[in-house]
Amino acid sequence: MTASLLEQLIDALRVLPGVGHKSAQRMAYHLLERQRDGGRRLAATLEAAMERVGHCRRCRDFSEAEVCAICASPARDIHLLCVVETPADRLAIEQATGYRGLYFVLQGRLSPLDGIGPAELGLDLLAQRLQEGEVRELIVATNPTVEGEATAHYLAQLARARGVRPSRLAHGVPLGGELEYVDRGTLSHAFGSRSEMQE
Amino acid sequence: MTASLLEQLIDALRVLPGVGHKSAQRMAYHLLERQRDGGRRLAATLEAAMERVGHCRRCRDFSEAEVCAICASPARDIHLLCVVETPADRLAIEQATGYRGLYFVLQGRLSPLDGIGPAELGLDLLAQRLQEGEVRELIVATNPTVEGEATAHYLAQLARARGVRPSRLAHGVPLGGELEYVDRGTLSHAFGSRSEMQE
Ligand SMILES: [Zn+2]
Ligand SMILES: [Zn+2]
Fold first, then answer.
1. Where do the Toprim domain residues begin and end (chains A, B) (predicted)?
2. Which residues of B touch A87 (CB under 8 A)?
3. CA-based angle B150:B156:B162, to the nearest 5?
4. Which CATH number characterizes residue B29's domain?
């Protein structure tokens, strides 16, 4: 016997992070009982996003366009480039600080055991970008975890080899924490007191 | 400037119960980064469910078919009818107890202030069903809240007027609680020790 549409929906909702069977069931009932239009809109938006949201070819952040709004903006300072691990980190910095430079989104961090090396993080693209000569400071905003620090070290070398000054967010971001969850005040302070990275 | 598809997706996800902006953002990033196929499947299932899941014309529970699988099953005892407020309550009883009778889903409870009266709960359909003469016991499993108790009282009168014996779940279900959240053991016990309702 095939599963009913309701059962299929409950199962499909579990693809969402942090949603177990019980939550999925509540969500399905809620949509069917009270939010059919919202559910239809979610279905349509989800389908469009899964198909059409790709990556900016300049910064690798999510973007529908070939080049994202930030990379395409003439108002941003092209001499500053901030490297983050994820789109959520980029958003956190954009919302918490007054930063007006550009970004580069790794979509991960160096993790040899998981097979994630420089190629997977687009570091060839980043190296080429630094080679172009416009970037003066590379703000390395990877997370203060073991892998994030190793990635930061690698990025600093990459920058120095091309005459670009690497800097790192000031302490204030709790060690072992995830940037995405740091409160705005702390993040803003840490961003403002970033220091040049020493060899 | 129109919102990006990513922003639209984050906004659309907030239709889900208990999902605020931050959770919606995490969900959107998670799907885009790691679950494109799961996201597509969710979109398709959601669309199909919103369009095609209706109500069983016998019991008012959610169903794609005109008559749901439980109502259509020849293995169920047609002399027992259990009335619940919501599909989630029906599922909780089905999973926690050995009940083999049929159900009737009110999709709500009497709440005159909200304009929910007997018609909104399909009580004409229920009265007609009791009139048919097959049902011998009406198990009233509305929630033990003020409105649930008032609904139970109304249902008991409806049953007695048609020569059907009304019963109510035994105490054990915490007062003021929601059936859906009661642990299986308690619910199973309460269901087993249901007692006839007195006038
Ligand atoms: Zn970009
Ligand atoms: Zn049914």
1. 79-174
2. 29, 32-33
3. 145
4. 1.10.8
The CATH number given to whatever domain includes residue A107 is 3.40.1360.10
ipTM of the complex: 0.77
Interchain contact, A18 vs B13, CB within 8 Å? no
Q: Are residues A73 and A21 in the same domain?
A: no
CA of B148 to the centre of ligand 2 (A): 22
Is A195 inside any structural domain? no
Report CB contact under 8 Å: A5, B91. Answer: no
* Euclidean distance between CA atoms A68 and A94, whole angstroms: 14
Residue B181: predicted pLDDT: 77
Is residue A11 a contact partner of residue A25, using CB atoms and an 8 Å limit?
no
Distance separating alpha carbons of residues A100 and B96, to the nearest angstrom: 58
Contact B16 A27 (CB under 8 A): yes
A175 pLDDT band, cuts 50/70/90, is low
Count of CB atoms situated within 10 Å of the CB of A68: 23
Q: Which residues constitute the domain of residue B150?
A: 62-168
> What distance in angstroms lies between residue A6's CA and the mean position of ligand 2's atoms?
14
A1 pLDDT band (50/70/90 cuts)? very low
Residue in A5, A10, A89 to test binding to B, most B beta-carbons within 10 Å? A5
Q: A13, A15, A25, A178: which to substitute to probe chain B, counting the most B Cβ within 10 Å?
A: A15
Instruction: Name the nearest CA neighbour of A111 among A157, A140, A151, A156.
Output: A151
Q: Based on the domain organization, do A104 and A30 belong to the same domain?
A: no
Distance in angstroms (rounded) separating the CA atoms of residues B39 and B20: 19
Average pLDDT over residues A168-188: 73
Q: Higher-confidence residue: A115 or B197?
A: A115
* pTM, rounded to two decimals: 0.75
Q: Are residues A113 and A88 in the same domain?
A: yes
Chain B hits for A61, Cβ within 8 Å: none
Contact B80, B136 (CB under 8 A): yes
Instruction: Give residue-wise pLDDT tens across range B7-29.
Output: 999 999 999 999 999 999 999 99
pLDDT tens per residue, range A56-74 = 999 999 999 999 999 999 9
Of B15, B42, B64, the CB nearest to A4: B64
Chain A interface, best mutation among B34, B41, B46, B63, by max A CB count within 10 A = B46
Backbone phi and psi for residue A91, each to the nearest 5 degrees, phi listed first? -65, -40
